[in-house]
Amino acid sequence: MSDLNKNNLPVGWEIDDYANIVTTISTNGKKVNQKQYEVSGKYPVIDQGKEDCSGYCNDEEKVIDANFPILVFGDHTRAVKSINNPFVAGADGVKVLQPSGAITPKLLFYFTQYLAISIKDKGYARHYQWVAKELIGIPPENEQIRIVEKIEELFSELDKGIESLKTAKAQLAVYRQALLKHAFEGKLTEEWRKDNADKLESPEQLLQHIQQEREARYQQQLEDWKKEVVEWETEGKEGKKPTKPKKHKIFPSLEDKDIDALPTLPESWQWIRLGNLINGSAQNGIYKPSSDYGQGNYIVRIDDFYDGSLVKKGGFKRLTLTKEELNTYVLEPNDILVNRVNSIEYLGKCCEIPELDEPIVFESNIMKFKVLNDFLKGSFLTSYLSSFSGKNRICDNAKHAVNQASINQTDVGMTPVPICCINEQNQIADILEQKLTVVEHELTNIEINLKKSDILRQSILKKAFSGQLVSQDPNDDPASELLKKIAIEKAELAEKKKAEKAAASKAKTAAKKAKI
Fold first, then answer.
1. pTM of this prediction?
2. Is 422 helix (H, G, I), strand (E, B) or coil?
3. Which intervals hold domain Type I restriction modification DNA specificity (predicted)?
4. Nearest CA to 333 among 310, 303, 311?
5. Residue range 349-368: mean pLDDT, rounded
6. What is the pLDDT of residue 3?
7. Which residues make Cβ contacts (< 8 Å) with residue 155, sequence separation at least 6?
8. In this structure, are strands 94-99 and 22-25 parallel, antiparallel, or unpaired?
9. Is 312 exposed, middle or buried (0-12, 13-18, 19+ CB in 10 A)?
10. Taking the CB of the first residue and of the last residue of the chain, which one, N or C, has fewer CB atoms within 10 A?
11. Please, are residues 171 and 58 in contact by the beta-carbon 8 Å criterion?
12. Secondary structure (DSSP) of 297-345
């Protein structure tokens, strides 16, 4: 907007500095910090967050009372709000702006929104200084009203479309969870079981085979370790002695009362603790200071996976590692990752590692483990843990702290998981992949259209403030009259401040004389 000039604006428009058409209302001594917010009260607390109201306050001395409507600008967040009633300002990053009488407050609200989005995001720096330096095109007074009416007409239509998209998105989320619920109650494969009764195992057979497989794998790990020790001794015992593998931890079987509290499963299914399906033991990821990030190997962090899958690798951070660290924390195909520390909303989210084209490690807020893939398909497990039922089970014993929660390896190991034979798991995985691929495609289209809506909203504002949204009326009084009004307001404000300062000085002098 800094390249705005009168030559590219309609006849009758004028230009002025943004800072010249607003007056900053002081909030000194009146702001309240977040810890002081009340759940209910007489006055709303308006801060720089996205919410229209972030809390309440009953302290009359904190109230901002002005010539409403006024604007609240989030200095860090760039959020813009139009406020119509007395309120209390949040403590940090709140700019309270009184519009000049020469510009319709709602028009200035939309213009400020446009500027806020147009300027480059400075992170947690203060943004108002950049808005204040911008130029603003001022239309004639009657045209201002027409522009606001047109913006609100177009935004109303746009908002209806956005609401429809958000509704569709919510419906897809409900459908996804309903699909997962049916999958892990055996309803998706009910007909398959009838047609393939000869391929089913009894729960007792399944459990026996799992125990035998765990023991066989442990014995194989012992044999491999013995060979590594012999090789280490042959080479003169250089370096660290190979670590003896730990015997697989046996988690207690679910009691009848535990199973009674869980959803009913088909006869050929079984509830089994996840820890008894893990090959070896779980492992937490690596912690490194921020100074080690930037170069080296990719690292998977808690924001890099959702709904059972990794996001695209291009978004990963890189981390400097020693050879030993890389060997200790490197991920392998079919590893299962579980988020062990996060806000409760995301705690327990998981994914299965696909084939990788380079070594990748994982951070300390994540744990990894391998499952006995002859009995448990990785995608079957991650789909279950991504369901409402699975997430609730794995987070059942979460430890809560301020703004975050955590689960440990025992919590994960004790999680009950519904298990059926591997053939049926394959059927379920195939059905889910087919149906959820359609869901993901629809969600992608919704996100694309939501982004297009944001672009269209900004385009409407751009046209509005370059004089291209509504037609001009030659009978309108030119905006030059409004500039005169702004000048008069500024002069009156300066006189008022001068008088207030003189009165304060006089009162101070009188107080000193009274003490003598």
1. 0.80
2. helix
3. 12-163, 266-435
4. 310
5. 95
6. 67
7. 457, 460
8. antiparallel
9. exposed
10. C
11. no
12. EEEE-GGGEETBEE--GGG-EEE---HHHHHHH---TT-EEEE-EE-TT
How many Cβ atoms sit within 10 Å of the Cβ of residue 99? Answer: 22
Residue tagged 């001594």 (tokens): 29
At 100, phi and psi to the nearest 5? -65, 150
Cα distance from N-terminal residue to C-terminal residue, the chain:
59
Burial class (CB in 10 A: 0-12, 13-18, 19+), 306: middle
Taking CA atoms, 492 is separated from 138, 296, 413, 486, 501, in Å, by: 21, 62, 73, 10, 14
Distance of CA 10 to the CA centre of its chain: 42
Amino acid at site 307: D
Please give the Cα distance from 251 to 216 (Å, whole number).
18
Whether 1 shows a pLDDT value over 70: the answer reads no
pLDDT computed for residue 313 by the predictor? 60
Q: Which residue is associated with the tokens 């006055």?
A: 43
- Could you tell me if 69 and 96 are in contact, meaning their C-beta atoms sit under 8 angstroms apart? no
Share of the chain above pLDDT 90, in %: 65
Q: Per the structure block, which two tokens stand in for 336?
A: 């299962």
| Under 8 Å between Cβ of 161 and 445 | no
How far apart CA 420 and CA 200 sit, in angstroms, is: 8
Task: Look at residues 351, 338, 347, 350 and name the one whose alpha carbon lies nearest to residue 392.
Answer: 347
